[in-house]
């Protein structure tokens, strides 16, 4: 399951996203940011990234010897909307690790089929398809580099 929540006003945005599987492994990120400019393409933010992925991958560490599978990190970053609504995101965590991510959400492939995709420099990626059944209800299928394949029903509010 990949829940996602946005709370936004004219200049500020709170974003919460995550993933969880039936074994109790999870990955979540929360950010609070300020939007800049007339078109608000630029966002500067602070946040946290929490992950527990026991047993999904072989034991691995980054260059600082930090275990990648499980962490709780403070982050600061910038996000910019590029042409074609690609979202470029550069962030720095409290271990000094930079991460660049590029993503695109809600790309209309047909009148009822939507594509979501993301990739980052930590070699993580996810791809999702949604088929719109009615205005607020969709069938969804996705693949995540940590959690594998999944599917379900998406409610859009």
Layout of helices and strands:
Layout: E1 4-8, E2 12-20, E3 26-36, E4 42-52, E5 70-81, E6 87-93, E7 98-108, E8 113-120, E9 125-134, E10 137-144, E11 148-155
Antiparallel strand pairs: 1-2, 2-3, 3-4, 4-5, 5-6, 6-7, 7-8, 8-9, 9-10, 10-11
Oligomer state of the chains in this structure: single chain
Helix and strand sequence: EEEEEEEEEEE
* Termini gap: 17 Å
Q: What is the typical, i.e. mean, pLDDT?
A: 89
Which structural class do the helices and strands define?
mainly beta
Give the % helix. Answer: under 10%
> Overall 3D geometry?
globular
Number of helices: 0
Strand order of the largest sheet: 1-2-3-4-5-6-7-8-9-10-11
List the domain count as a whole number: 1
Largest sheet: 11 strands, antiparallel
